[in-house]
Amino acid sequence: MHPLLLAALSLLPIVCVGVLLIGLQWPARRAMPICYLTAAILAILVWGVPGLQLAAATVKGLIIAGELLFIVFGAVLLLNTLEQSGGLATIRRTFHDISPDRRIQVIIIAWLFGSFIEGSSGFGTPAAVAVPLLVGLGFPPMAAVVAGLIIQSTPVSFGAAGTPVLVGVGQGLAADPAVMAYADQLSYGSWPEFLGMIGWKIALIHAIVGTLIPLLVVTIMTRFFGKNRSLVEGLAVWRFALFAALAMTIPYFAVALLLGPEFPSILGGLIGLAIVVPAAKRGFLVPKQDACWDFDVSENWDPLWSGLVKKNAAATETAPMGAMTAWLPYAMVAILLVVTRVPLFRLDGWLKQAAIAFHDIFGTSISHDLRLLYLPGAVFIVVSLITFGTHRLSWQGYGRAWKRSLRTVVAASTALVFTVPMVQVFINSDGGARGFEAMPLALAHGVEQLAGGAWPLFAPLIGGVGAAVAGSNTISNMMFSLFQFHVGQRIGADPTWIVALQAVGGAAGNMICVHNVVAASAVVGLLGREGAILRKTMIPFAYYVILAGGLGYLIVWYF
Q1: How far is Cα 132 from Cα 464, in angstroms, rounded to an integer?
Q2: DSSP string, 425-471
Q3: Phi and psi (nearest 5°) for 358?
Q4: For residue 234, which of 145, 151, 142, 147 has the smallest C-alpha distance?
Q5: Are 380 and 78 in contact (CB under 8 A)?
Q6: What CA–CA distances, in Å, run from 461 to 322, 533, 537?
Q7: What is the pLDDT of residue 308?
Q8: pLDDT tens-digit profile of 278-322?
């Protein structure tokens, strides 16, 4: 079969998602079963994938969907526990003391705090932490979800202590003779040094492109969710947005250059918080009281913006508590995520070993290890239990928190049990009777034939599509890094820059990943609005891959 025709067929499941979710705005629970069937029919009839392999990919997808629901449940449980105890009301007051301006709040929570959480955990955890926190502060749920997804870009390449680079790019390139020869040619004495070199190139592109992400978050929020639907109201805080962006991206790049891929997002987010929060308290570049921006009253919100989890100002069981006590649960979340994921503390290996293994499902090569203790959901549940005691919440109040959280997860399950299996069928479509490559690689080869020397413009897009489909920058890098490396060599470009563009695009793809959208929406009970959310997150995704591609083209051919 001609590569371009095979690429066009590979594109069909993605087109199906785009048409049904974004074009027709069907809810994911209706659209994704059809998209799953599209991928399954292509796998069987065109790729010749055996039925057992299709079933194994589906089962793996269901297991991963269960992991996502576990994370969602933990995040919602912590939010509901804080709401019942009165901690959330205190957190609202502390942010009002920093600035009552919603534009400032979203930059601090989504961009800076979210970057730190992404660096320490990955797994889409920033959305699970930042989105419900924003809703608790009074943001419309859809605005909170969009903000939480947009920042799933710059910090993602170094999420979970550098996993997308160390594991994704590392395993994607490892043991290939051409890659090893190129590393030797550049006189890199060790594989970690070679990965570190690719890492700082990734960080450089992210630091340039990501500098406008806080401003994009704010302008999209004021344009789509403000009373006046105004871009100007978002642009009004451009100085603070750039200040907050640079407070993160400059140390982020410096850490990648000096320390390697493990810590750019962790330290970039922490240093940014240490700089920006005290500055905001002192009014540095923050709008004056009479120029503060807020949403319209909730009674006037579009009904599409609201979910099942809403700000609840009702009286709680406890007396008003101090800010330190109220913030302690989120501090514990941050500390536990770092301690259980950074190899320095040696806990990650132990937690990963406590796994339920699903090896060679149905006799195929498809496997998966279920590591419940390592998932962020376990951290959320542990912190919720500790909060139940430290905040002196009654059994009745804590029971309400569990019931509300379970209802939210049940409502989210329908969409995810079709979304993730569709992804796994798409990825695991190689090895069929026709001998074709898996759908993602077939699609990439078709784009390569059309692009030629202009490939650097398209390299981030391929990475982004890979992550959007797979739901993971790490998986996208594993699938495409070697392909991108060889394309770079074929067109006479520095292949490490092409791999860097792949990783940058893969990070941006998290903004439009369907199961990320479903999971983030589920945290606040915002279900059936996935298409409306994707329409908004497509804007920053397009910005990211276009600017990164243009920058990569200039670097490869002119610098």
Answers
A1: 26
A2: HHHT--S-TT-PPPHHHHHHHHHHHHHGGGHHHHHHHHHHHHHHHHS
A3: -115, 85
A4: 147
A5: yes
A6: 47, 20, 15
A7: 53
A8: 999 999 999 988 889 999 998 899 888 986 544 444 434 455 678
Give the 3-state secondary structure of residue 370. Answer: strand
| The predicted structure's pLDDT at residue 184 | 87
* Alpha-carbon separation of residue 538 from 64, 508, 546 (angstroms): 25, 10, 12
Phi, psi dihedral angles at 357 (to 5 degrees): -90, 130
The residue type of 403 is: K
Compute the distance between CA of residue 17 and CA of residue 5 in angstroms, rounded to an integer. Answer: 19
- What is the Cα–Cα distance from 273 to 302, expressed in whole angstroms? 32
Torsion of CA 129, 133, 134, 140, to 10 degrees: 100
Tell which residue, 481, 427, 493, has the closest CA to residue 457.
493
Round to whole Å and give the CA distance between 466 and 190: 28
CA 232 to chain centre: 28
Q: How far apart are CA 97 and CA 95, in angstroms?
A: 5
Cβ-in-10-Å burial (0-12, 13-18, 19+) of 409 comes to: buried
| pLDDT exceeds 70 at position 187 | yes
Helix (H) or strand (E) holding 542: helix 530-558
Q: Which two tokens mark 19?
A: 């048409």
Over the stretch 467-508, which tens digit does the pLDDT of each residue have?
988 878 888 998 899 899 989 998 999 999 999 999 999 999
Instruction: Using the predicted structure, report yes or no on whether residue 136 has a pLDDT greater than 50.
Output: yes
The token pair that represents 227 in the structure block: 């009373």
424 DSSP 8-state letter: H
Higher pLDDT, 47 or 307: 47
Q: What is the pLDDT of residue 307?
A: 63
Give Rg (Cα) of the chain.
Answer: 23
* 3-class secondary structure, 344: helix
- Check residue 312 and give its pLDDT: 47
Q: Is residue 79's pLDDT more than 90?
A: no
DSSP assignment string, 204-241: HHHHHHGGGHHHHHHHHHHHHHSTT--SHHHHTTHHHH
Across the chain, mean pLDDT equals: 88
Q: Tell me what the mean pLDDT of segment 65-88 comes to.
A: 84
